[in-house]
Protein 1
Amino acid sequence: MDPDQLAALASGLRLDSQSSPRTQPSPRAHGPPPRYHHGMSAEEVTRYLKEYAEWFEEDRKIPPEPATIVDRNQLIADQRQRRAQLERMAHESARVGGAGIPFYMTMVGFPKHSSSTALQNLRPITFSGMLVRRVHLGHYLLCRLVAPCTRMVAVQTVVEDTEGIAHDLSIYNFPSTSNCSLEHLDALFPPGTILAIREPTLKAPTQGSRPLLRVDSPTDIIFVARNSPLLQNVSWRTGVAVAGFRSLPATADAWQQRGNDHFKASQWFLAAFAYSHALVLDHNAIPLRLNRAEAYLRQRYYTGALYDAQQVLAEVGVSDTFADKALLRVAKARYGRQEYNLAQEAFVRYKNKHVGDSSVDSWLDRCRARLRESSTGIYDWPSLFRTAQRKIRLDAADFVGPVKVRRMKHRGGGRGVVTTKDVKTGELLIVTKPFASVYAPDLPTDQLIVTLDLISKTTRERTDSLLLSLIVDKLYGNPDLRNEVYHLYSGPDYPAPPETYPPSPSDPAAVDPLDPKVNINIAQLEAICTYNNFCPFRLDGPRVDQEAKPAGLYTFASMFNHSCAANATWYCIGDLMIIRAAESIPAGTEVTIPYCVEESYIDRQTILRKHMLDKCDCRLCEEDRQDGDERLRRRHQLKSRLDADAIMSASLAEVRALEKDIRATYGPTRGPVRPLSALALHVVAEKLRMSGNARDMRDSLQCDMQALECYGFVLIRDSARSPSGSKLPIAKDRIPTVTSFMEPADIMLRIACTYYMLREETNATNWLKATLWLTDVSVGGGKELFMLIHEETLVRMGIQSFAARVL
């Protein structure tokens, strides 16, 4: 999120006392970290992050030291007080409808350790043997919770080791805990829960004097069962049980009942968590494994569901009832994993065993539709568009057309995407679902989290923080997908990824939330998100979402490199990304897409820096740089005037003067592509049309046509048209990519409307056909999708019926 937007948003909120944490003096020589406040400008954020990075590096130079011993009872009392405060806030918010929104700041991009060593290869350690600022490689900490949990950005509680030494514990990125209730935390982390933390780190305090145990990766946490070999010959100095709290269930039946209760409440992760506890006590219980498989399906842990269901089918002598349930779960899990052929086979097997049962017919239809989409690239775009207007996340298959990933020598050996054959303008290259995505409706309404990125030195969107949590959650329940994410580029601090992509599929693996079988490196994942996240522009949604920009990780699409003047273009219908060729592309040529389409060079550079791109060498940026810094600054200043709401109330003379000033910021030897001039010319055209005078309306047509040329369109003037008037008024060899197709499409529709008002229906029809062509080569779908995408504009202009008749 832009810091100025953030300040405006936060200024309208009544922030509670946790919005501005008070940084207490630190005993360390170099002092406390610099302080962040929510009203910082973009320049202030950049300066703050630079200062924080410098402070962090100085802090890392301090040698490890023994931890301050903190009174156990005081730690517990303080944590209980924090919990009581949150409970009061929640109660008050529910009673009066909100009494202020808490504001939290979190930071990504700094070094942090995530273990990759199996627990059985680690040795135990206690707090007395640990040092602050040291990652205790080769060790694990056995500890148990002795206080209830709270949650701000992290889950926070107090743990003690076997010697009775206690410290605060902060757990980040744990599945299902993002914006969860306190009751949810109680079910996951009740006092008395025993944890084994792989290769733990005691962090130095940045506030107060207490060090804390910080866990960034949820896969570093193992929940230790009462019958675990880890507890042999282990005794707790403070007693067998944690005083003041109920003991955990001791039987499989009790855990199963708890799981059933969570399942009925649609708490899928908690249900699977409880069933996992039960399976520890009764490993061979088929109903438990089936129940967990179903909970995994609801949680979208398709790998875990598939593995559990296959285990049931492999049992000798399993009953037909259980086998049927397992087969259905296998089929649904295969479908969720986008293994549509295998899913169809499983559904057919079930259908053959239950002749006349129509319960899986719809699933078979869906499998056939997905197989057709993935093999042919033929989609029902209008239907998908309508569905996306009410449900963003679509049920559709991925498609990979005539493209492949390979190393690009001209990019220093980095990867890129090339065509495998000659490609025509508008040809479909890929359709892909996101690995994970977040939209404004997904964000919590009871808190505001701001993420600062030390890698890009920018403020991230509010959606980015939640996106990271969703990626972690998906990997946690689908460990075989790890390489799909970790084979993406993660910056110069990590080994270069493999030359090929996507990685070969992996076999389904067991998923146990008590003992994760995947290693999630959070620091690398944060870097992957910084370098690869998209802001997916939805054709079916608002042009600009004022609440929050969406965020998504599209893994295969991340292979496409950027160019402002790209040869391919991309859009989203719902969460489905569509990439098409914007021009004819010879076989073996690199395919590029625009990461941004800002008219201002300065705006583009700001956005590209968030993608860690220092410089774009496309022809548009080269021409901009040749215009010189002074012209670029002036153009950027004039753009703010063009964007202002007051522009439409300005006089014709004023907007003409503004257009002239913008035109003057482009050098005399510059090529025809001048995106900001296009915007300015269209504003002049709109102002001319407002007079209703026929002469002004004809002048507006010329302004809009010049605007299209400034976007890069080649116009075919009247003299070049056939007598029938059927030839399009624009050349069809390529579509410009320096802007979204929606902007020139709106201009073309306005031209068509103006001709219609002037009673020149032939010209109006030709411009409608030009808009249809532009829309179709950009996103497909023909006339039907065209009428849906532009419905609001056509209705507003009063030409919807005319367009439906002549197209």
Protein 2
Amino acid sequence: MKEEGVESVLVNPNIATIQTSPQFSDRIHFVPISVESVTRVIEKERPDAILLGFGGQTALNCGIELAEKGVLEKYGIRVLGTQIRGIQLTEDRDLFKKTMLGAGIPVPTSTAVYSADEARRVARELGYPVIVRVAYTLGGKGGGVARSDLELGQIAERGLNSSLTHQVLVEEYLGGWKQVEYEIMRDAADNSVIICNMENMLGMRVHTGDNIVVAPSQTLNNSEYHKLRTASLLAARTCGIVGECNIQFALHPESERYAAIEINARLSRSSALASKATGYPLAYIATKLALGYDLTELKNKVSGVTTALFEPSLDYLVVKMPRWDTDKFDGASRTIGTSMKSIGEVMAIGRGFEEAIQKAARMANPQNDGVVRTRPGFSSKAAALEKLQHPTDTITFDLVDALRAGVPVEQVASESEVDPWFVYKFKNVVDFHGRLETLPPGTVPNRDTLSKAKKLGFSDRQLGDLLGVDEDIVRDSRVRMGVVPATKIIDTLAAEWPSKTNYLYQTFDASVDEAPSTDKRKVIVLGAGPYRIGSSVEFDWGTMNMAWALKDNGIQEVIVVNCNPETVSTDFDMSDRLYFEELSVERLLSIYDKEKPEGIVLCVGGQTPNDLAQALEKRGVTILGTSSQSIETAEDRSKFSALLDRLGIPQPGWGSFRSPAQAATFCARVGYPVVVRPSHVLSGSAMRVIWDPSELETYITKAAMVNPDYPVTVSEFIEGAREVEVDAVSDGANTVIGAIIEHVQNAGVHSGDAIMSIPTVSIGRAAKEKIRTYTRSIARELKAMGPLNIQFLVRGMSVYVIECNLRASRSLPFVSKATGVNLIDLVAPVMVGGKLKRKADVEEPKLYAVKAPQFSFLQMDGADPRLGVEMRSTGEVACFGSTFAEALSQAFLASGHKIPKEGDGGLMLFEPWQDPGAAAGLISKFGEKGIAVTSLSDASSQSQVDGAARMISDGKASFVLSFNTNSNTTSERMRAIRRKAVDLQVQIISTKEEAEALLLCVGG
């Protein structure tokens, strides 16, 4: 839009995303995406038009409501791109079905319903199992597969509550059919182009967001491909799509029968994948089409030699693999199905499926060596078959383990409902793995064997483990033999025309290197890899702001390495060179050797790049910024605690242990509760507050397993302390504090799950001065040369340090946008040998900024929505206000909460060990606001428990208070009530402090 001279006003409360950076829009409103808030923005800004297709499902739903309530008509606002009617035709399940049938496009047998009773009636007519699809939602939210009346009733209740129009579709189950997607670009003149088609390896029984997706499709014949292509173009025309859309089909595996499942008339996860897979800039072209251009008028930005009407051609394939974090959720089912559970995803590029799938496995989790596990997940064929019939988040490895257990390819394909083509590809990897196991230990094989292994995607580390040699020996041997990767370009043309592109990947299945390096002054910046709990868009913001700032500091060529298709950092036009590659020692060394940069910046990509510091530096890589030795001191809990003792900086009493027995002696001396903390982890993995000796052994053992190379630190848990953190930048001599951030919740809730405020609300001047002093002392002692984040506990006048991260933090975008001072800009000169741009701390902002977490408990079947010291949130928002209460209220609304009002009701749950009398004052305060809170304990009668469940079902409980204190255990009755609340999207308040904060917003 800037290219066209169009002034843009962005509405988005996501403070962590690059999208809400000031350079991209003329004005930004950090407010809830709701009819009320957006109407106020419209009244103020008086825009001429509105774009709805770029903000996901939330934006579409809001746009439809704005139209239906007459807001768009009242203010004379035109909808650009696909019109409201087109959106309704794709989002309303019944309208979509009728529209497709009217165009002659088959759909599954189904009926739209508006009640659980209707759903049961339709299901009995269709026959179980059935699938429930929810109108106006994303990620399969609220839906699922029902195999009985009981299951259907539960899913229908949840789905009806999740739908904007309280509509669900009960549909025949096509679980054994293939799932194929097409990405379409269409202009207002009816020119259309297929950007990409994609095949979901696990078929229709698994949501595309949780599926292994391959592009282009590999198992469709020519007739099937063109039949679905024709149907895609017809569907887009029938719905009046202008811009981009994604259409999903079910395809019978043994005939050419097909059915249209749904259309997304917006940019989606699949759109991002298709864009990165092909190099076709979907969002850019879709915006131009919305502004009135035809496809024939627009150039392909990647190739520079074709128009946007030219269909991309691929001489490689890509594999998308999801990243799950199921272990973070107590009680969550690992089963995957038609409702999406993954947190993030990676995209791997290769010349063959074997190479790409092995790369993807490592990208999704650096602890994976590839698709072959060191130890199979089961030992018998029967156990293997059971796992294949009920897929979980380990399905890729389960397929491989089944083959290793001797299950024939045809049986693996039949039981898993995965096309035999894919299973044979996995068999190639398994067979070669077996061949490598037979080689003499301690030796490196010949060139032909090494070359074959690398073409099949085996990593140096994987080969070293199999051969009984160090991975460096494998690397040195293959380099000496000339077994090195070639760098290939993605140009959308399959090299049919010469073109210049900076979009690169590496493969061992090619001999010609297509991208010679330059002699410019250059730096490599590492991205964060897949989104996961604790690592999301915040680190993409850091990656790109560092890349841009380095350009401003004399670096001629900034090279970004990342593997996440959902990020801005993997947009080809956002950096001078983009390597869509693994964040591994092996791959980074090959890129480093090829490009010969001044060094690598690790400090903005989160924990994954930081963990590579020592390994890279040991192998001769120059790390720009803080040294690997300093990073190790901060990450190793025992080393950091010893440093604090040397500096005389207060910290909770601590000890470092490798066995539960050692820890028990310490705990008996300092008293419970205590906190168990492993080293070198992200988002508090395996951290836990231990309330009594019975819990100690379990959690010490779990923490030790997370990182067995380091002892587990156990420290006192200081009850009643407020958690505070600082984001700062340092050049080794001078440290600039960006902000002191106060958490609303006391210690015991992970910082990523906490509500937080800038400026602070209750921290005194003396405590703040101590915080500043301790921050500078720690930064100086650690020789910090970059961003850092330090977490504190404050109780009265006492200030304790609990943790330091020598890297950009999750809260860095929040601090930078709340204060108006970009901390990455300040510290970028330090990466290339300079000093900070300023010496004074950043001033406190005049407005309050409040950041609130976003949770996805609804998607995680069976998960208990309780908070603790291990992070569970999957997103965040932030809003501003002249008072803390105003900013907090907006943040609550933006994160999907409702502010209770007079006449509303609530529930308060008490576990057996909790004292109901302790919360009497809080219940009384809600009562003073006209909000009746009903208490429920494990001692309550069954009729009282049933009554509480009815309150939630009937919408009479607008919140549930369930505080996490004094134990990690919970009663099954209380867990069931919390789960009911989550399923019907009733907010759960987990701490007394959050409840008191909510009270500030009532009546405001």
Protein 3
Amino acid sequence: MNKYITILIICISVSLIPAQDRRATMSSGPIDYIKEAPVLPLCAVPTLTDEFIENHMDRMKTEYPDVYRRMQIPPVRYKSVNVGDIQKFWVMVDDGSGGTKSEEVVAEMLAKGSNTAIWADTVELSSSSNISPSLAEDYLKLLEESTPAGSRDSSKGIYDLELEYFGSPPNYDGDGIVDFLFADIFSGAGGYFTGQDQTPQSGSNQRDIVYLDTHSSVSYVQGTLSHELQHLIHYNYDKYESVQFNEGLSEMATIVCGGDYISHGHYLNQADKIGWSWVSDAAHYAMASLFTVYYTEQLGDGAIKEFIQLNAGGNPMQDWMAFDQLLTNHSVGQTYREWLVDWFTANYLDYKSMNSKYGYDIWLPMRARNTAKHLSGKVESTGNSLMNYSPNYIEYQSSVDSMEITFTATSSGTPHYRSIEFNDSSAVVYTLSNGAKHLVFHGDTLKVRNAVFVIVNQQNTTMSYDYISTGTDASGWTGFQEIAHDDGTADLFTTSDGSQFGYLGWGNGNPGWGWGVKFDPKMAINQLVEIKMVIGFDQEFSGSGTPAEADKDFNLHIWNVLDSEGNVEDVIDPILWSTQRTSNTGGWTIIDMTPYKDKLSNLGEIVVGVVEDDTIGTYFAMDNNVNGENFTYAFNYNNGGVLDPLQNFSISGTSLDGWNYFMRASFFIADATVPDLKAGFMQNSVFTDELNLYIIGNSIMGVDNMVITAKNDGFETILSSQILAGNDSILVTENYRLFASGALDINARGTFLYGRDNIDTTFTYNVNYTLAKVGGDIVSRDQNYLMKIPENSLSENSYIIIGSDDMNPSTKIMLNSLPEKLSPVYTVSPVGKELANGARISMDVGRNDAKDVSIGYWDGETWRELNSVVTDNGKRIEGVGTHLGQYTLIRRGSGMPLAVDEDLLIPTEYALYQNYPNPFNPETMIHYDLPKGEFVSLVVFDILGRELVTLVNQFKPAGRHQILWDGNNAKGASAVTGIYFYRISTHGFTQTKKMVLSR
């Protein structure tokens, strides 16, 4: 179908949306036809108070008197110390009963520079993964030569940067060296500094020294170097700084030096639940860090050293007194109590474009979480509490315009109330009075869309308050959704001849012609509440011959599309809409649809139509391709009575494809979906510690509604997520990095974007860092899948991950190709990695008959069947796999056979493997290999060498075998808790291994 239009471009002089100065008129005539977006090891400094040290020394005196006597001997002083020298140091370690004790360690100097030296406990050197001579050299370079690209100056080391931004260390022993000692320090501490070493007290090492734990990761140590050095420097100026400021500055030191700092999400996720108290957990460290980052950004980097070195009358100033002095020095005009209100506001908004006080330059993983969120303007809330120096955030997402709200303190102290109200063009900030009614109203022309009330406790005590609001009742709805196909700024359309215009319409003399824009509320339970558009009428443009007093009106339609030809039907009778405005301001024209709510509920995909009711033309502002597709239609072109996509038209040879009209539709919606989440991951095949994680929902997800954390080997990280392009039910987090072998738990907590039901789901995996030369085992968390990777089967050392029923965007074809589900699908990653020497796979058959099933492997196109052998006990089947990937149980004979080198099926040498699990209760599996068929004996002995039970005593063919021991002796009686030995004997091979039964 060809369409023809003549174009008339008219210059205008009225003020429109930015960049708009022309309109175009489409009328009958020629037109071109167009074809078809933790649990963390932490710093111990807060624990090591004077009282703690005193109690610690008293305990050493009474419980370890011999050690205490040696602690009173002053440390030996050396005139010079070089790499390779050995010295003794006192270190705080675990006492074996949950407390601490001092222990003398023998340490070797591994590296030395101009200002720093690296030492390590000689006992730890052989087993620690974070310290060695080569790593010590790396740490020394970080300290004295260069820092990562994110530092304030990457050409400087940590020491020089902290000298510049924080100050000088004490140099207690006069050698000008700060010592960094790696040792197995007490549990829960990744590092520490103690002022005891700056004194001649018993047990003091009497030098500038900080301690680092040998069980932390290398990346954690790199951040801890700068963190603990700040504590040492700070002690030089103020021995008694409050913990919040001291720890915040140490975290700031890590940021200044470009290290991995603690995620501020740990605090922002629960900012309303944490007062200005101190608990040595990730949330409080993140709080202290973020407060320091905020005042550093607001006052400048010089404020760091200035705060540390503040004093009055020769005595150091601490805590809030020092901070007030800092604000005075910078002529801020606020006390710390007023400053807190702005800080809490910045944590919620993070929007410096609105006001430089209300945001950050540093990237935040999330904004502060709401305390309460309301869709309805009619709310009564009582018994709300505030911890000391803490905020609450009350958000009204809709129904807020013309709402009245009153906040009333119910405690002896009164909170500070701040209102941030967002209208169609800006945000307005108000301070509210206690007990006084506040009207949310910005005038007849500016509708308030949403509002946030920041309630702040400015005192060091708890407070409580109530609030009541009277506005539109939207109870029952769980979300408010404005659907937009524009980016908020209209664009100029440029034709092939260089002409430009900003508004488009049919022009005068086309009654019955119109335009439509498509909207999909996505949720089945919904109500259309508002339509808004940016429009101009013919008489509002310069050069128009239409009288100024002529009608400004049109017929508003809500259509269902009936077919692919563009035929439509009205959902409600057309509404004749009109306005008495005097001019076009370029702003939004808002149409309230709530009077028609009974007929505009539970809509599917609709088209909102504007149809000319007379001969006076209506024009629309335009936007270019913000969503990558067309949502705008011409209606009744050439009296055809149907919708035609705008992409089918061009003006002066320039296509309208990708252009949409400025029209938006807003809905109340309710999500009644019962949450059912899945998770998955995709692992980097080269850098195997890097993963992309996926959380897959059965409804629409929202980044701000869901907190995703990953915990690996006890180290918890709050992850930054985003909606997967093209699928708003999937959240993806990119480039998460593993820390170590052990458990990996992915937790998703929150609600769907428009949901009411709380979600708290954890997905579990196992991780094993496998050395290629050694090989290793990877077992599922349910212990039903085991892969034994032999030596030299992997081409390089790799993190191997296993999970069950893993989901990601690429698994749909795999699952659809599975005829029936007989067991979980286990994913062993990196998927597709070839195993040179294969791997032995063992799977529990569950309720299936072992003779009827095989192990299936997904090769990317089809399910392959492994040559599967039933184990002696009939509970498991075994086979040899050639790749890492997806494995499950399939019906025997249902899959294409997996081609396997016969040499992989028959072992080349005898082997007795460590039992699994170990320790165990009540049963364990023992594997062994036979390179040839022969008589085999496998016997279990107790610790005294007495035979307990014979598990195997017969001829066995060549191959890989396993046997289950149920923890009973030969008479069927349960063996007691203890150490046992199992021994295999053949004609030419004998081997014994130890196992532990723990009942």
